[in-house]
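User: tokens in, sequence out, please.
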């Protein structure tokens, strides 16, 4: 869905609402009046829902995440030619969707993870426009293994990969957050000015 489609839909809704208000001012049956009032609420609600779906899809894109100057260096780190850097390794080798890499790797799994990401995102946008962004950005909470395991947890190349069999309790330790993926894979982003 594009902005153009939503704008055209908005114009159509305005025209329909104007036509519906004319029905309300002309003598008509109670059913027509009720349908007109219901339509006057339903049409803008459908348009608003379309806008929310569109906004949600746009806010998951790397281009949105890196549109603020505070995040430019993080965006550049996706392109670094170094497979030791997790973000670059995943992005450049198509291990995550290139359009939604930030969202994929920084959102906890499930509905609560989605809602948490939206709340943190709104906080970040508020601070960017109405507050003072810190000089050095930090994660709000430690990076959770569940984010890595949602993709890697059942992948054969992960389970059979070097170092992932020892200790034998590795997967259990990771799932229990007793050990972090970042203990071994410690460089998420390299920031170059």
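Assistant: Sequence out:
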């Amino acid at each position: 869905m594009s902005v153009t489609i939503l704008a055209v839909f908005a114009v159509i809704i305005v025209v329909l609402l104007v036509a519906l208000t004319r029905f309300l001012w002309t003598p008509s049956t109670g059913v027509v009046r009720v349908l007109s009032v219901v339509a006057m609420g339903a049409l803008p609600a459908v348009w608003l829902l379309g806008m929310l779906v569109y906004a949600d899809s746009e806010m998951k894109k790397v281009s949105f995440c890196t549109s603020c100057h505070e995040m430019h260096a993080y965006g550049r780190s996706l392109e670094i030619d170094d497979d030791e850097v997790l973000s670059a390794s995943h992005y450049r080798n198509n291990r995550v969707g290139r359009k939604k890499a930030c969202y994929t790797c920084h959102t906890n799994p499930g509905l609560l993870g989605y809602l948490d990401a939206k709340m943190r995102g709104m906080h970040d946008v508020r601070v960017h426009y109405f507050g003072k962004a810190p000089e050095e950005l930090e994660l709000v909470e430690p990076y959770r293994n569940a984010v890595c395991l949602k993709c890697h947890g059942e992948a054969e190349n992960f389970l059979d990969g070097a170092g992932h069999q020892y200790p034998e309790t590795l997967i259990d330790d990771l799932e229990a957050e007793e050990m972090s993926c970042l203990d071994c894979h410690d460089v998420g982003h390299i920031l170059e000015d």
